[in-house]
Automatic annotation (TrEMBL):
SUPFAM superfamilies: Thioredoxin-like
Residues that bind [2Fe-2S] cluster: C83, C88, C124, C128
Domain of life of the native organism: Bacteria
PANTHER family documented for this protein: BIFURCATING [FEFE] HYDROGENASE GAMMA SUBUNIT, NADH-QUINONE OXIDOREDUCTASE, E SUBUNIT
Species the sequence originates in: Actinophytocola oryzae
Similarity section: Belongs to the complex I 24 kDa subunit family.
Record-given protein name: Formate dehydrogenase gamma subunit
Cofactor(s) this protein requires: [2Fe-2S] cluster
């Protein structure tokens, strides 16, 4: 790449900022755009966003690290998120998490050894009456038992 030339990531981030600059509080929507496009929020976007939005790098980093929805690395294969908020815990989420870790061979926040699955936790999908709730590749399911989890994984 030529010195001074922008990377595709930098080009995308700058265009995403330009498209949302006039919005009130554009940082969150821009971060969602970046994650939707790339699958995660690369740390390389922090200084670009800080510069473009005239905020500190610490502010950008703080938002990325505060919201659990923002991944800091790429996912692979099947992406599973399990709710661990109080309502889902009361409905059996902890046993489901243990089962998912064994089934996927992945710790929460990690990937399986074959990089075929990523397992993450969430603290509320807003599906509390139907807990425990699981999201697999963007599709939410409620009242998930270990057996239902296995069936859902088989469908992916």
């Amino acid at each position: 790449m030529k010195p001074g030339a922008m990377t595709p990531l930098e080009q995308y981030v700058r265009s995403a900022v330009a498209a949302r600059r006039a919005e009130r509080g554009p940082l969150l929507p821009i971060l969602h755009d970046i994650q939707a496009t790339f699958g995660y929020v690369d740390q390389a976007v922090v200084p670009i966003l800080a510069e473009e939005l005239n905020i500190s790098r610490a502010d950008v980093h703080g938002v990325i690290s505060f919201y659990h929805d923002f991944r800091k690395s790429a996912t692979s294969g099947t992406h599973v998120r399990i709710c661990r908020a109080e309502a889902c815990q009361a409905a059996g989420a902890e046993a489901l998490v243990a089962h998912a870790q064994e089934r996927l061979r992945a710790d929460v926040g990690g990937m399986s050894p074959d990089r075929d699955a990523t397992l993450d936790q969430v603290f509320c999908f807003g599906n509390c009456a139907l807990g425990p709730t699981v999201e697999i590749n963007g599709r939410i399911s409620g009242r998930v038992t270990p057996q239902r989890f296995d069936a859902l994984i088989e469908k992916t």
